[in-house]
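Hi L.,

As promised, C2 domain-containing protein:
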Amino acid sequence: MTTPAPQPQQPNTIRKLIVEVANARDLLPKDGQGSSSPYVVADFDGQKKRTSTVWRNLNPVWNEVLEFIVSDPKTMEYEELEIEVFNDKKMSNGNARKNHFLGRVKMYGSQFKRGGTEGLVYYPLEKKSVFSWIRGEIGLKIYYNDELVEEHKNEDKAQEKETGGCCGEVRKSPAVVVEDARVLEVPMPTEVAMEGSPSPRIVTVEEFPPVTTVQAEHHQDVPPVVQPEPPPEVRKMQMGSSGCHERIRVLRKPNGDYAPRVIAGKFTCESERISPCDLVEPMEYLFVRIVKARGLAPNQSPYVKIRTSSHRRESKPVCYRPCESAANPEWHQVFAFSHNRLDSANSTLEISVWDSPSEHFLGGLCFNLSDVPVRDPSDSPLAPQWYRLEGADDPHSGRVSGDIQLSVWIGTQADDAFAESWSSDAPHVAHTRSKVYQSPKLWYLRVTVIEAQDLHIAPNLPPLTAPEVRVKAQLGFQSIRTRRGAMNNHTSTFFWHEDLVFVAGEPLEDQLILLVEDRTAKDPVLLGHVMIPVASIEQRLDERHVASKWFGLEGGSWGGGPYCSRIHLRLCLEGGYHVLDEAAHVCSDFRPTAKQLWKPAIGILELGILGARALLPMKTTCGGKGSTDAYCVAKYGKKWVRTRTISESFDPRWNEQYTWQVYDPCTVLTIGVFDNWRMFNTVSEDKPDYCIGKVRIRVSTLESNKVYTSSYPLLVLQRTGLKKMGEIELAIRFACPSLLPETCAIYGQPLLPRMHYLRPLGVAQQEALRGAAIKTVGAWLARSEPPLGPEVVRYMLDADSHTWSMRKSKANWLRIVAVLAWAVGLAKWLDDIRRWRNPVTTILVHLLYLVLVWYPDLIVPTGFLYVFLIGVWYYRFRPKIPAGMDIRLSKADTVDPDELDEEFDTIPSSKPPDIIRVRYDRLRALAARVQTVLGDFATQGERVQALVSWRDPRATKLFIGVCLAITVVLYAVPPKMVAVALGFYFLRHPMFRDPMPPASLNFFRRLPSLSDRTSAYQVLGLRFENILYGLEFYTSARAQTAEISEETRDP
């Protein structure tokens, strides 16, 4: 009997999760003596391990490594790692009755990094419950490695024998068992002491892999491995209540299951599979997959023609290689044709093979569309089959031979083959397919220029002239220059101590170039330069100190020499910041750059792009007819999606669905519609895509697990005014548990990562970095296929949101007025009460005032109860659908044409000098009004200061005398009586009122201010005619601008 040769096996690997517990800082004292004796317990996939205990230290240092076995690397991203810190009661001298909880950290596998890219991260300790008192942070370094494991039969047998015979001893070496062709290592026994344990003895917990049997179909010489019974004093942790030793694997996702099964009328059973395109309308397509052919007649470059009753498509010709047979061509193409079962019931599908140069018929076949199978998206791909090619009826058509391998089925847009298919509504396939893009990973590169030594300064400087030495740093298209360096009088050393921040995008292939220049003369002189690869710069995740380095300068106008100049720098890549590429108020992601600092997702955002209606024509075809080739782009977080392009349609139907993970509900989803011009471009030209409109939807305004199907107008503000370009139909769902503790806790957390508050960036610096980030993202997405143009990226990211606009200024002012409208309304209501417009209401207010004065403890609860009732009342008027653009709020419907023309003007301006002068004078008139309002505010504040500043001695004497009298009265009279008297005096009837202003207001208005000290006397003076001109100018400026615009308007 011969034994079959064993098949070669792939090397077995085992994934290990490494948790390096470094230290902790600022822990809470819990031992009753002002300190704590902390230790750490780590729990991953049922495996628990702990560190040693540090005696009486609130800033303990462990520097210990804990290893865990990852049983299934495919589901590691859903596994949870929980790290808890406890106070060891054994070292508290009997003052602690239990191991007090000091804090915990929860992470998921999606936050783990592969070994070699990890870094030390300090995580703030979290509470276990609302009433926990926790503080401090813990430093961890978490990563995973894949290790090769060799199988040795003798060692396995020896370990099995040793495990079965030694029941009273704990194994010193890890056991190795075979599970599903993988070798798993049982972790070493560890000590675990949890909070509230009844006794201080050490409990040993060991995790065993499940019992499996190796199938011996091909390896008969390998005996089955049986899991031995655990020793008596080792308690085995099991995931279920079953009596067997098999451990049940449960796929745990962060924060529970987000499947939207709570929506009524969609699914009848919880176990029913959710369709991946349940938000959009299913669109049927006829799919034809052409794989290859064999045994064809002699040919040069065959191609395939596919024809139905309403469509016709051709495949690409086959180009043979030098040593390849011409009888066996391969295409590997998929075609998708829009299909209607009612119209295509009696239609046929014709597939034929032709030779490209000679148009010679090589064979074909026909299918009846009523017999084509329908494939469900959950099924596996349909297997292609070989079909015999048939000839034509014409006897002169030539010899037909060979077979063709293909598959034909009917499916929907949810089919796996739809994304890469040649669709019937997309003739230019390279620029019309639906794609998903990812923004590059962006870092802030911080360059701290400290000093430079041994610089070769020109010796022929004028007397008493200090050299002006600056450092210019360049990274790609970004360039920043430092201020003038401070010089040491005794040596040629210059000091700066200045931070320069750049935006660097992965894969970090650029070079950081620093140029030291002497700009004393008119022409700058290069003193030296240094080039530093960005990939070699250290990455920092928190505010820890980074060591500085000296770099030698090369080049320069003075050449080299025995003494080389050098520069002192501190370089680091900041991973604790979020690199803003969107405006802060419409940002879609606030996560930091470093993946280790990400929090788990709280939900899933699903977007169904249904279609558009009544789009305007964007281009003109050859026959003079207008057409639109529309596609849609959606952006949320780092993920961009692009639908396919629907050619020559004013009512395109996309019906595509996409999903995003949501880490913060206070974010914004942006959807834009564009007209495709790039699919018509040649190599020599590059026409940008035209923007049709966009819609923004704030995720926090969506209710949990509710589908919103709405139509939004596509509005574009052009030079001629506001224009409606059409409408877009969307279906949106935010799948998230509505009152999950993690979801509610996000509203109390900082909006930006921690580094933005520890080392904040300036407003102007942040705006400049945002512009650099937009250019970096645009350059990255332009390299994709099909490319996402820079004009699309700039439009989606609002690159021009910071430009000046009179319309935006008016809209912001009206927003402030609307915010203060409640205060104005409250003041009007109080005025109506004190004027007795409604006597019944005024009497009720008197009674309520008496109750609150006599029982002041009810004031605060009554205020909060009133706010609660207001919120309940406004629940009736809550928005039913997510709001889009408000043309009234943005003043887009009433904008003046000249103001709109100014908003679209470039910087520097491209308008004639007359228009610029009129606009400048109008801006001066507006600024004068703002100047007057600011002066009035300053005047009121200075009058308050004048009460006790003795600028007006008589007024100050009167004021302090009245204060003394009020003090005596308040000491003598009970405060409740004073409050009642003041309230009733304020609410007195109008018959007891004087129509003139009260004495207190008259006294305040007579107090002096400093406005008389700020007036600068002009030499020439200001004539009365100029004053009248300034008052009348604003009304006539628009008319003058309109006349000039008409004269200078292009034909």
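The chain has five domains: 13-148, 284-423, 441-574, 595-766, 806-1013.

Thanks again for sending the construct details.

K.
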